[in-house]
Fold this protein.
Amino acid sequence: MGKPLWMRGVYGKAGSIDFNLNWRDYKKYSGGGILMDQGIHMLDLYRFFLDENLKCESSYLSSLLWDIENEDNGFVLLKSDSGVIATLHSSATQWRHKFLLEMAFENGYINLDGILSSTGSYAPERLVHGFRNSEDIGKSMGRPDETLSEYEVDNSWQLELEEFNKAIQGSHAIEHGTIDDACSVMTLVDEIYNKNSRQ
């Protein structure tokens, strides 16, 4: 699809009736709010797909609804080393569990809508990809043919455990989710919290 141009992500959930009493919302118990709780996973995916570092251009982390110490919404603007722009909205006020990752490239796009979680509340999981139609300036422009795939089985935990077991046995090195990956995404999270324009 050519080089990546931008990425956009939404990771949101419905905060419960007693959300303001949740341990995650208070600094003495947690490392952060909804950005740390859910947004960090989207940031990890950005880094994985781009295979390069991201820097925080700006962020706005705020408690828009609840009177809590940590944020219930986080809005983040990022830029990669090569100039790819990425935005993230991590929210506890989505009211419907939502996962959406959109990626645009020179010649097309990929959208992942939904994930298979243990609760099933983010399902179904749908992957859409399409190619830019630069030949037609008629009615089909802006409405390219798309391919839709739906998924009902998530083997990711099994695959992670298999890789972990092979690493313990010394027959295979960890390739996915290394300590370097973890440190890099945590460094990015720290930068986002430090650049919070709400402060």
